[in-house]
Design a protein that fits this description.
The protein has 222 residues and is an alpha+beta fold. It has one domain. It is built from five helices and eight strands; from the N terminus they run ααβββββααβββα. A hairpin with a 4-residue loop joins β1 and β2. α1 runs antiparallel to α2 and α1 runs parallel beside α5. It is elongated and about 65 Å long. It starts with 8 loop residues before the first helix and ends with a helix.
């Protein structure tokens, strides 16, 4: 099942209504902050569209399946009668790797080539990885901008913060640098060792929560 592109329209509209309600009391700096938030939301919408298109292109690849065997730390990619396996190296020999956060999809370790039997090119992967990490940096910047507005000092979105801070910017040492794709959308670091506290539930649900938090905060804003 393909991933569905999330919409930013509710959040963009909420910014406009917030500005209309408070235009007379907002400082020049606060108006500039709102302008930047809107610009970044439009950018995020474009990035989400590109990422979902890539995610679904990976899913549509003929006969592609990705399996992970935690007993041997092996990822196996199958396309029709073609099969290729990659054995992952554990950071700690006594701690096995596991793969989570995917629904009806697959994953790969960045920089480890499986001969591209799926037809997914290295250039597509590089674009996907860069866009995905930039997406969470951009969304995290919106969180900080929101806190500059009246009554929004405590604004937060846990899903965005976890992925940006714990999986993109400050991952645990030795965590496989991996990316996933599936019906939940793009996933950061789906391959993980047991016991890791942080998990990416997928771009689709993360974005929906982010948009809802933004819109709700602005709609009840001071």
């Amino acid at each position: 099942m393909k991933a569905t592109e999330p919409s930013y329209q509710r959040a963009i509209d909420a910014v406009g209504r917030y500005r209309d309600r408070h235009d007379a009391t907002l400082s020049v700096g606060q108006k500039e902050t709102l302008d930047e938030i809107v610009r970044r939301l439009h950018r995020l919408a474009g990035q989400a569209k590109q990422l979902i298109e890539l995610n679904n292109a990976f899913l549509e690849t003929e006969g592609l399946t990705t399996e992970f065997d935690p007993t041997t730390d092996t990822v196996t990619v199958r396309v029709g009668d073609i099969q290729q396996s990659i054995k992952l190296k554990r950071a700690d020999p006594n701690v096995p790797i596991k793969m989570e956060g995917l629904t009806a999809g697959g994953a790969y370790k960045a920089g480890v080539r499986a001969g591209d039997p799926s037809g997914v090119s290295e250039s597509q992967r590089l674009i996907y990885e860069g866009l995905l990490e930039d997406y969470y940096h951009n969304a995290h910047r919106v969180l900080k901008l929101m806190r500059l507005l009246p009554g929004q000092a405590d604004f937060k979105c846990r899903e965005i913060t976890i992925v940006r801070n714990k999986l993109v910017e400050h991952p645990d040492e030795g965590e496989p640098y991996s990316f996933g794709f599936g019906s939940a959308g793009p996933v950061v670091r789906p391959m993980q060792r047991p016991g890791r506290e942080w998990r990416d539930e997928g771009l689709v649900s993360n974005t929906e929560r982010f948009v809802n938090e933004l819109a709700s905060a602005l709609e009840r804003g001071a």
